[in-house]
Amino acid sequence: NTGFTIPLGTLPGQTKMRVRSRGGSTVISSSDACSTFGSGETEDYTITIAAASYCSGTPSTGTLTAPANICPGVSFNLSLTGYTVAADITIQWEEDYGSGWQPIPAATNAVHTVSGIVSPTSYRAVVTCGGSAQSAATAAAPVSVNTPSQCYCNITFPSGDVEPITLVDFAGINNPSSNTIGTPPEWEDFTGIVGTVNQGQSYTINVKGNTNGNYTDAIRVYIDWDQNGLFTDPGEDFNLGNIVNSTGLDAVVATTSIAVPSYAAIGSTRMRVTKKWSSTAGPCNNTGYGQAEH
């Protein structure tokens, strides 16, 4: 079961409500009101919508829900429930990032999506009764920002023995590692090894790895240029091609040139190198054979 709120401004009078069920595990979406199912049932009901009453006195603010922390630049929702519902009730979301409360433009619904923040910010909702001209504000909800290192996704290669990356050579990083199948972890942390690049410059990257026989492995690199804890922004992935039938200690190497964008954030960031049998590994891979290093 669930509950829902009739939106203010809904036309009073009679309207239709449709209830549908569907066989199997396929979820019914909002676009399925008139679609054809292989199995299931549809029932229609008539409901009468009464006009909302008008408020008086000081309205109730209800409950504000917001995340306690968020990754940099990632969107999130603020929601308000249990507030006074009336025809003349209005909601205004406000934010305070250190210089006092300011109204957020066009943020007047019970649910407001924040497109992303990069510094700690507090939020509140101001509920106003039109008839009495009285307002009440929720308690402040502070939202802190995680460091990028707290936001990077995990990566795994669960199909069997680890097939290791054996060399990463890039911008002052020259990191050879074991070529023994199954010995290194599937995800190795080399963040203590630091390379240095400059905005607007290009750098060659070379990667080697053990393919565990005459097999083809795809090499892909991800760099978080904007330091937001994600590897999925445009321009942050680099295809180095394939290595085939390599022990990881021979001359077989995957290589490309990486151009550092002019907008790359200054300071330390994360690079993730992936190697996967038969297909490319995404930055948060969880299938197949291979290895990742960062």
Describe the protein in words.
The chain is an all-beta fold and 294 residues long. It starts with 12 loop residues before the first strand and ends with a strand. The chain is built from no helices and 20 strands. The chain has strands at residues 13-22, 40-49, 63-65, 69-70, 76-81, 89-96, 102-103, 111-114, 121-129, 134-137, 141-145, 165-170, 173-176, 187-188, 202-209, 216-223, 237-244, 254-259, 271-277, 290-293.
What keyword list fits this structure?
294 residues; mainly beta; 6-stranded mixed sheet; 5-stranded mixed sheet
How do the strands and helices of this protein lay out in sequence?
Blueprint: E1 13-22, E2 40-49, E3 63-65, E4 69-70, E5 76-81, E6 89-96, E7 102-103, E8 111-114, E9 121-129, E10 134-137, E11 141-145, E12 165-170, E13 173-176, E14 187-188, E15 202-209, E16 216-223, E17 237-244, E18 254-259, E19 271-277, E20 290-293
Parallel strand pairs: 4-11, 14-20
Antiparallel strand pairs: 1-2, 3-5, 5-8, 6-7, 6-9, 9-10, 9-11, 12-13, 12-15, 15-18, 16-17, 16-19, 19-20
Helical percent range? under 10%
Number of helices: 0
Strand content: 35-45%
Give the SSE order as H and E letters: EEEEEEEEEEEEEEEEEEEE
List segments where confidence is low: pLDDT < 50 over at least 5 consecutive residues. Answer: none
Question: Structural class given helices, strands, pairing?
Answer: mainly beta
Whole-angstrom Rg: 27 Å
Give the quaternary arrangement of the chains: single chain
Indicate the mean pLDDT.
94
* Total beta strands: 20
Ends: how far apart?
45 Å
Give a concise summary.
The chain is an all-beta fold and about 290 residues long.
